[in-house]
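Team,

Forwarding the record for the chain on the shared tracking sheet. I've put the sequence and predicted structure together so nobody has to dig through attachments.
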Amino acid sequence: MIGRTKEINELNRLYESDESEFVAVYGRRRVGKTYLIRETFADRFAFQHTGLPNATKRQQLAHFKESLVEYGFKGAVPKDWFAAFHALKEVVAKCVLRRKVVFIDELPWLDTAKSDFLMALEAFWNEWASARKDIMLVVCGSAAAWMVKNLFRNRGGLHNRVTGRLCLQPFTLGECEAFVAERGLGMSRADIAECYMALGGIPYYWRYLARGLSLSQNIDRICFAIDAPLKYEFDELYASLFKNAASYKKVVAALAKKKVGMTRLELLETLDIAATGKLSEILETLEASGFIRSYRSYGAKKKNAIYQLTDPFSLFHFRFLESRPSDEHFWSSTAGTPAQVVWKGLAFERLCLLHLPQILKALGIGSIHVEAYGWNFRGDDTYPDGVQIDLVIDRADNVINICEMKYASAGFAIDKAYELALGKKVATFAGVTKTRKAIHLTLVTASGLVRNQYSSRVQSEVILADLFA
């Protein structure tokens, strides 16, 4: 098991509880939820079942019966979910294990139209499982919106019934490095970072990397070859997570075109979505699923949130996969071209935003309370030049870090023009925001800062190695 130490410890803590526990594990598709549960509990299951995608109630019940049979059930296919959970009670009650782990994977798929699945689940937990002391019900789901709405914000029989909640995040760079070492892939940290910029930290995607191939060859093989396993992953991913996938993809496509992101109002003006409530639901769901982030511009009110696409694989799709290149060696043959160079610059910024805790640690402020913002100023009569800052770290110790993220294969050198631009950016931020805090300019680079006559403009530096912490 690579990483997941915090999650494993929490699962084991709940397992050792003296009460019955209802544990919900959620996270985007292929992030490793099922693997985590099965590896953690191994031979301690009293029952396991996985829902079927796009199946009818009848098909789900027939499949549920097959899982019951594996644990000794000898009855017929349950006529409804109440009968199914009654059969589950019988199976679990006969289990001789001290602690009875009941694992239901892809729970949202079981909740088909007019199936009364949720009502039956409520009855199973409230009337039977919670009254015992030895049950650990673990449910998983990739459809984060369903999990949030029906389990965490349930206003019916499951209100406040979930006793353990784990949102499984993608791997960090450090965890990807451990994965690479475990598989003997022989990748440098620069390769790992570039791979992360394309695939994100989704363990399932990294499993396709083959030993003996360069990173470019691997990306060609898994994204651009005729039979590339991730060639159509974008469409399959969104279709598996969202009922109205087209609307979600429309929102994500719009956000992909705006580096800094868009407000809700800007999205409404751009997209043909008449129902404003529907857009709010889509944005909330995309954020809960880990595809986008919402942030405030420094000094702006919370209601004026900006939504930004941060999922590396989705960004990679819109840049390169959406056009369906016919060249099976597309990534290798376009290495070093302006398209790849521009993409790397943008993708590195997203990589840094996904590793904010590592940046704070590198700056020595991991224990200080901070707020992270972006800042976008379009200019006025006093400050005519527009300014964009991707990361503003507002610290409780009266310092603000303005962070610049720059990707370069060799050391990054500040020239006279860029030094002047940095000075103007800091002066504009200070003048417009009227902050009384000290402003420190921080440079986050892939290969370090070249020391020259202009480098003293930077107060602090973070390098790629720091992001692997």
